[in-house]
Amino acid sequence: MKKILIANRGEIAIRIARSVVEKGFAPVMLFSDADASAPHPRMGKEAYRLAGKTPAETYLDIEKILTIAKKASVWGVHPGYGFLSENAEFSAGCEKTGLVFIGPSAENIKSMGDKIVARTLAKKAGVPTLSGSDFASTAEEAKAQAKHIGYPVLLKAKAGGGGKGMRRVDREADIDEAFRLARSEAEKSFKDGTLYVEKYLERARHVEVQVFGDSHGQAFAIADRDCSIQRRHQKIIEEAPAPLLSEKTRGAMAEAAMNLTRSVGYRGAGTLEFLVNHDESFHFLEMNTRLQVEHPVTEWISGLDLVALQIDVALGLKISVPSRSHGHALEVRVYAEDPDNQFFPMPGKLLHVSWPTGPFVRVDTGVETGSEVTLYYDPMLAKISVWGHTREEAVERMLRALKETTIVGTKTNLGFLFNILSHPAFKKSDLSTQFIPQHGPFPSRPLSEAETFAALAGVYDTQAAPQTADRPAARDESMSAWWASGLARPR
Amino acid sequence: MKLTLHTSGKDGLPFDFKNENGHVTVASKDRELSLERLYQNEHTHVYLLGGEVFNVTVLRRHGERVDVLVNGAFYDLHVVDEKRKTSSLAPLGSLKEIKAVMPGRVTKVLVKPGDAVSEGMPLLVLEAMKMENEIKASAAGTVEKIAVNPGDTVESGHLLVKLA
Asked: Which residues of A are catalytic?
């Protein structure tokens, strides 16, 4: 049986392994020392240890990973998202070693990974872009360019992604500080601190188009997604298709996306990110040359398994894609973080985890009861996605699913997500990247009298009832000791 | 047992609890409700009251704050256990001592000793998980001491800034 090495961890490694098995391949997993007892290695036919804990010495170590790939004689390598997924050197390294890289060519990764080159390619393919600079090597240069473009602007990393190395600047006085922070984040995340300046669109929506290309010169656009609900420039709620978009705009975006995909001879799964203004004018932001975190919403409405499709493309097959989508899908990203305090990551041990089930609910997760959320990796615990015939149905289904979800032990954004989804502006699809600052904070509805009594009964039963009389002290210790010991909150 | 529920802007409301054969009776000054225990495990308690189901999960306790999910909605309640206040419950750390809640590296100190700060003012920048996080003042005061220097790596619980 041919093997596919999955060069990733957590929920995405598990999600990929599932399709790998269904396509008749054997999944080969990798795990760092910090992930030895995590669920993902268990999903493999084989699993190999990457000594170390930090990303740099494990899931980012090209040499270590290629050595394992050779030793295990795998046919192909799937990089997932993040880590090495958009690393041209890794893609080239795989091909050089005689392995199939399940993703685009090194050349595609390289040109799209350079956000400035990507913008030039987009312009050439007739895709509308935002006004912006080439790059700014000093805060002074950024200042001059920002003045020319007009505030507010966004400082962005040339090698950017995942919201890292990105800062909004509203006035000249703030640019020095923002430049310094963005550059140091970019250097740390991408080993490249080059920044550029781009016009910041107030209250625009983030809409993206899923594309696919194959080695027969075909290019497809598979529906769009709205990912406007963001914090720290990272998406937390995504949906497909993008609501309240005229068919004309939707068609024009798909057309533009296909043109760019075709013009660069793109192979595999990719995503074109756009900002869409009130007047529905749209502007290309960047192209992600990998599977997106939020790909499940596209799978729900298209009926396609995007990972299976990636494998088909890697096999050199000619693919076909349905032209119609069906219904509406929503996804939320569940994080171990504190929404009341700048979304600060909240590591800790998960004492109890239970996920929703039922009709049209999907959970992609890489954690379970007893898992430790560490500081080494992204604190995303799961993606919950749902499907409905209509957006209203999907929203109600997601609220139901969130009610069924329990995560005990560390603070999560579950309540925050629930309250956003219950907000009238969200229900009306009044979406923009400024949704959270604009409509927040999102307090829970007030407790009724009976709920108050029940909540207190719960507190009483947890700490004082005879059947749990010896529990409280022990629980406090296990429950993230650093928090329970009464440390002041950093606010 | 007595628990006092504090809601901002109001006096604390004391509640009494009685535990009797499958029921828990909760009484405030002018109301008493007896909730039937329908189900419970270590974290979740399900009660029945007049045919209505109440699903309560205690997610986390930290000092006098309790995070609970009540029928899916999240609440951060301020509950004081009058009796245990002086015994086993750890007192909430002083608001004047700002400590690291997670390991990280101090990248920038934004204040100096003697500076007057208001609640919520940024004091320093702590880098953790590749993110730069502003650590803010938990109360108004004067900076008495800065316990770290830029570049320092700190463990959780490490004192960062002391306010007077």
From this structure: 290
The answer to whether the beta carbons of residues B35 and B18 sit under 8 Å apart is no
d(CA B138, CA B117): 10
**Mutating which of B68, B134, B138 best tests the A interface, going by the most A Cβ atoms within 10 A?**
B68
Residue-level length of chain A: 491
Residue with tokens 């499907």: A387
Mutation test of the interface with chain B: which of A343, A462, A477, A485, choosing the one with the most B Cβ atoms within 10 A? Answer: A462
Interface predicted TM-score (ipTM) = 0.76
DSSP string for A118-141: HHHHHHHTT--B--B-S-BSSHHH
Rounded to the nearest integer, the mean pLDDT of chain A is 91
- Between A467 and A212, name the one with better pLDDT: A212
Task: Determine how many CB atoms are found less than 10 A away from the CB of residue B118.
Answer: 10
Instruction: Please give the structure tokens belonging to residue A73.
Output: 């004689």
How far is it, in rounded angstroms, from Cα A247 to Cα A257? 15
Confidence band (pLDDT; 50, 70, 90) for B11? confident
How far is B74 from A113, CA to CA, in rounded Å? 40
CA distance B109 to chain A (A): 13
Q: CA-CA distance, B152 to B161, in Å (whole number)?
A: 13
Rounded distance between C-alpha atoms, residue A398 and residue B127, angstroms: 34
Tokens 């299976």 locate to A308
Residue that has been written with the tokens 């009724």 in this structure: A448
CA distances from A226 to A287, A330, A432, B69, B116 (A): 15, 10, 9, 29, 44
Contact B132 A466 (CB under 8 A): no
pLDDT(A486) > 70: no
With a CB cutoff of 8 Å and minimum separation 6, the contacts of B39 are B45, B46
Average pLDDT over residues A184-208: 89
Q: For B102, which of A345, A351, A352 is closest by C-beta distance? A: A345
pLDDT of residue A372: 94
Burial of A409 (0-12, 13-18, 19+ CB in 10 A): buried
Model pLDDT for residues B99-142, shown as the tens digit of each residue: 887 778 898 999 999 999 887 788 998 887 667 778 888 778 88
Whether pLDDT at A108 is above 50 = yes
- Kindly state the average pLDDT of the residues A434-452: 93
pLDDT in tens, A324-363: 899 999 999 999 999 988 899 999 899 999 999 999 999 9
Q: What is the DSSP letter of A337?
A: E
| Beta-ladder partners of B40 | B45
**Shortest distance, CA B48 to any CA of chain A (angstroms):** 9
Q: Say if residues B74 and A418 touch (Cβ distance below 8 Å).
A: yes
